[in-house]
Amino acid sequence: MSRIGRMPISVPTNVTVEIGKENFVRVKGPKGELSQKFNRDMSIAQENGEVHVTRPTDMRHHKALHGLTRSLLNNMVLGVTTGFSQVLEIHGVGYRAQLQGKDLQLQVGKSHDVSYAPPSKEMSFEVSRDGRTVTIHGIDKETVGQLAAVIRMERPPEPYKGKGIRYQGEYVRAKSGKGGKGGKK
Question: Does residue 185 belong to any structural domain of this protein?
Answer without folding.
Answer: no
